[in-house]
């Protein structure tokens, strides 16, 4: 290194240290990223050759380190004129791999980078002593991590999009702590609040406050059991054996005590490393694209798919290419239900040659089905169904263990109940016709609902509330009819007698599978019932209640029913006719799903377990349901894309009608054979 350049670098490093030390006493001034004016090299280097450079750019920025194809490649240090600095690994002009980024304020991030983003394992230390250690996805805390707040608070657990979300533990500086579930940075779900004085609350939470069933316990052993909400509380007090004084306590005091339990506000990052990255004119990139690739024909209008980490593929369609769900949320399951896979996926679609993407329009989501109102042919059936569910759920039952006896699974295990219009000793009067109600294996399904963490009151309100059910417009191929509850949580499917026999036969194995694998994607079954109408016809309607996979906090913009086959697996609809309720098939799927390796391995293992279970039960006609949510949609209804760098990566070629402008691209038969090859 020349003496002159060495002096410049040292001067800049001194300036960085000086600005960091003085940051707490002055405002942080951030200039926008300037374009790079390259310094001409005396030597001529071959494309792809890595060599060491020392460059001072016309805008005042300085880079020293490894260089190739007219941009940083390898290990190097970049100093910005505003005092920011990055030291670490580079790939094609982007921070990629291990590195350290420091701000003029004194804040630092040290860990993994991906395309300039803080992505992977890393530690952030703020200027106000805020620290976070854990996983990141595209500049956001996402995954598992721990954070020490400047005010002394501490959180360790799951994160999503920069906020506590999932299971976690938060400890306040006054000694109070909460252990339980979080959602969007607030206490939500089941959790326990323990105060420093020994008192505690165990129960349900919503939006940071107790909501639903819960128990408040004092340090002396007394406790209060009741139903909680901000506006009203009701319950029963149970004194401890040592308590001799009269009880005088208002449950509202719990909400007053929670005023001191505010979630800390972390330090905000004003500018991210990805925003500081320079758009380098990498010369070797255009040359490397031509190596090992056929020359495109003039009429080859197929776009190239680029994932969020810069991987490029030929052919039409889109790539779900982030290791996060920051661009798209994906949910999947078998046969209409399953657990959300709402972490670890993303969407990306870019035409690398033209900057545009294939035409796809996301229409506003709409509610499925027709409301069953008075006069509908199935109105009485709906009333009978709701009356039967209300009776079955409200019927007193002793607390049971999860270890059920074989007699509970007996196919003959059922309860018949008669519902006369005038009512009876066990049934209320109603305005429908007389009918009989049958519960199949009631103890098993009651325990299954417990395993699925379904609250009986919420279950009853969803199905039997004041709102009517909705009937889907057309039955499935099996001839069954489908009904949805008003809140979309549950789907009711009519069944043939033979189908009921199959479900009862496999019920013991199903129950054990659910108990063993909490994250199974197999359909959730909540109840199996039958309504027998009176009269000459003596009509019987058998039905099963299932969980609705697509009932999520996110709108589902595209849904797919995947069987792993190409025969007859194409939806004959134009793109303009496809909306959020259209069920697409295997050959309609133009997305590539990419997950973090650990998530992918777990997902694959669970799919293998579920398929083994279905195979053992001799079930062969099943499918995987996938729902896609686009987080960002333009005013014209098109999914928005973010910048992606490109690189060579093989993916299946997609065939497309050359003379049909805007035609939907499809996977070729040869590529489908590769994708569906079980040996791969």
From TrEMBL:
A Pfam family assignment: MORN
GO molecular function: 1-phosphatidylinositol-4-phosphate 5-kinase activity; ATP binding
Residue ranges of the region described as Disordered: 285-369
Ranges of residues in domain PIPK: 371-680
CDD domains found in the cross-reference section: PIPKc_AtPIP5K_like
PROSITE patterns: PIPK
Compositionally biased tracts (Low complexity): 324-338
GO annotation, cellular component aspect: membrane
Class of the enzyme per the UniProt entry, highest EC level: transferase
InterPro entries membership: MORN (IPR003409), PIno-4-P-5_kinase_pln (IPR017163), PInositol-4-P-4/5-kinase_C_sf (IPR027483), PInositol-4-P-4/5-kinase_core (IPR002498), PInositol-4-P-5-kinase_N (IPR027484), PInositol-4/5-P-5/4-kinase (IPR023610)
GO biological process: phosphatidylinositol metabolic process
Descriptive protein name: 1-phosphatidylinositol-4-phosphate 5-kinase
């Amino acid at each position: 290194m020349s003496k002159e350049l060495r002096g410049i670098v040292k001067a800049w490093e001194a300036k960085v240290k000086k600005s960091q030390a003085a940051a707490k006493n002055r405002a942080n001034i951030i200039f926008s990223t300037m374009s790079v004016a390259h310094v001409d090299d005396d030597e001529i280097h071959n494309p792809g050759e890595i060599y060491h450079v020392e460059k001072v750019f016309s805008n005042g920025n300085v880079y020293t380190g490894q260089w190739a194809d007219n941009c940083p490649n390898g290990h190097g240090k970049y100093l910005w004129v505003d005092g920011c600095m990055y030291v670490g690994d580079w790939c094609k002009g982007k921070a990629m791999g291990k590195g350290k980024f420091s701000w003029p304020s004194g804040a630092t991030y040290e860990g993994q980078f991906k395309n300039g983003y803080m992505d992977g394992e890393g530690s952030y230390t703020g200027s106000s002593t805020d620290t976070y250690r854990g996983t990141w996805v595209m500049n956001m805390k996402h995954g598992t991590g721990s954070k020490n707040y400047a005010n002394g608070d501490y959180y360790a657990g799951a994160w999503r999009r920069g906020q506590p979300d999932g299971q976690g533990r938060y400890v306040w500086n006054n000694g109070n702590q909460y252990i339980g579930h979080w959602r969007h940075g607030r206490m939500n779900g089941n959790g326990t609040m323990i105060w420093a004085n020994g008192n505690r609350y165990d129960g349900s939470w919503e939006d940071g406050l107790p909501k639903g069933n819960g128990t408040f316990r004092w340090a002396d052993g007394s406790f209060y059991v009741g139903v909680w909400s901000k506006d009203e509380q009701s319950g029963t007090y149970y004194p401890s054996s040592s308590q001799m004084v009269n009880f005088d306590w208002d449950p509202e005091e719990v909400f007053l005590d929670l005023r001191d339990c505010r979630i800390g506000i972390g330090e905000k990052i004003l500018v991210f490393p990805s925003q500081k990255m320079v758009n380098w004119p990498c010369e070797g990139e255009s040359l490397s694209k031509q190596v090992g690739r056929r020359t495109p024909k003039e009429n080859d209008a197929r776009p190239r798919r680029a994932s969020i980490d810069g991987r490029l593929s030929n052919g039409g369609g889109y790539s779900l290419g982030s290791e996060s769900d920051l661009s798209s949320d994906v949910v999947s399951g078998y046969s209409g239900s399953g657990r959300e896979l709402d972490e670890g996926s993303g969407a990306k679609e870019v035409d690398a040659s033209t900057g545009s993407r294939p035409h796809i329009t996301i229409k506003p989501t709409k509610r499925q089905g027709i409301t069953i109102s008075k006069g509908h042919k199935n109105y009485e059936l709906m009333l009978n169904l709701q009356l039967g569910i209300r009776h079955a759920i409200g019927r007193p039952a002793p607390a049971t263990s999860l270890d059920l006896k074989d007699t509970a699974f007996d196919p003959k295990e059922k309860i018949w109940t008669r519902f006369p219009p005038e009512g009876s000793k066990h049934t209320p009067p109603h305005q429908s016709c007389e009918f009989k109600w049958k519960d199949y294996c009631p103890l098993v399904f009651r325990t299954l609902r417990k395993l699925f963490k379904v609250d009986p009151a919420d279950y009853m309100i969803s199905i039997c509330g004041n709102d009517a059910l909705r009937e889907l417009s057309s039955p499935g191929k099996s001839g069954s009819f489908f009904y949805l509850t008003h809140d979309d949580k549950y789907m009711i499917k009519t069944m043939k007698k033979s189908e009921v026999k199959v479900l009862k036969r496999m019920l013991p194995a199903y129950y054990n599978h659910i108990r063993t694998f909490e994250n199974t994607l197999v359909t959730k079954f909540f109840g199996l019932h039958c309504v027998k109408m009176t009269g000459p016809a003596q009509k019987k309607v058998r039905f099963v209640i299932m969980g609705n996979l697509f009932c999520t906090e996110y709108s589902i913009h595209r849904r797919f029913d995947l069987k792993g086959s190409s025969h007859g697996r194409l939806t004959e609809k134009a793109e303009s006719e496809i909306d959020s309720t259209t069920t697409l098939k295997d050959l309609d799927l133009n997305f590539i799903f990419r997950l973090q390796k650990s998530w992918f391995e777990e997902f694959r293992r669970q799919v293998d377990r579920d398929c083994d279970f279905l195979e053992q039960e001799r079930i062969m006609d099943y499918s995987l349901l996938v729902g896609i949510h686009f987080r960002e949609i333009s005013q014209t209804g098109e999914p928005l894309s973010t910048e992606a760098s490109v690189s060579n990566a093989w993916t299946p070629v997609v065939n497309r009608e050359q003379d049909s402008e805007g035609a939907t691209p499809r996977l070729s038969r040869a590529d489908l054979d590769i994708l569906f090859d079980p040996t791969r």
